[in-house]
Structure formats: structure tokens, C-alpha cells
Specification:
The chain is 89% helix and 0% strand. It contains three helices and no strands. It has helices spanning 2-68, 74-83, 88-105. The longest helix is centred in the N-terminal third of the chain and has 67 residues, at 2-68. The relative contact order is 0.03.
Length: 107
């Protein structure tokens, strides 16, 4: 009886060792897959941040150039039109356009 009981205990101990080894192996594979996914995600986020920085830098440069640019020659013509009585149609169109832009932005 002692021998059979010892054999049963040894068999259970081996089974526990094997189960632990299988669990560790599965966890190692799962961990490697997660680390690979995490690395790819971090790399993708880094690339997106770099592209966003380049775009914003170009946008800021363009905006600064626009602000520093001299007024367009048509500016004087438009100012003259706005001051004349015959420019009522233009002013009406301009106010409707600005109203439409405001309405669209408020959606």
C-alpha cells in the first residue's frame, strides 16, 4: 500500500510539474506576443507624432509668412468697393457669405 501511495504522489507531483511547465511556456509565448504588439504600437505612435510635428512646423512657417506678407494689391480695390454706394450688392453677398460660414461652423 505504501508503495502504491508513494507512486500516486510521485505521479501527481510530476503532473503538477508538467502543468506548471506548460503554463510557463504558454505565458512566455503570450508575453512575447504582447511585447511585440506593444513595440509596434509605440513605434506607430512615435511615427505619427513625428509626422504631426513636421506638419505643424510647416503650417507655422506658412502662417508666419502669410502674416508678414505685404497686403495684396486687390486689398485697395476691395476697400474702395466697400466704401462706394454701388457696392451694396457686394456687401450683401459678403454678409450672407459670412452668415453661412458662421452657421456652418456652429453646427
Amino acid at each position: 500500500k505504501r508503495s502504491a501511495l508513494d507512486q500516486l504522489r510521485a505521479c501527481v507531483a510530476r503532473a503538477e510539474l508538467m502543468r506548471g511547465a506548460v503554463v510557463r511556456l504558454a505565458n512566455r509565448r503570450l508575453s512575447a506576443g504582447f511585447e511585440s504588439w506593444q513595440g509596434t504600437t509605440e513605434q506607430s505612435a512615435h511615427i505619427r507624432a513625428q509626422l504631426r510635428a513636421v506638419l505643424l512646423r510647416r503650417l507655422a512657417t506658412s502662417f508666419a509668412a502669410w502674416v508678414e506678407a505685404p497686403p495684396h494689391p486687390a486689398h485697395k480695390v476691395i476697400a474702395r468697393l466697400a466704401n462706394k454706394p454701388c457696392s451694396r450688392a457686394f456687401n450683401t453677398w459678403l454678409s450672407r457669405y459670412q452668415g453661412a460660414v458662421y452657421a456652418r461652423r456652429s453646427l
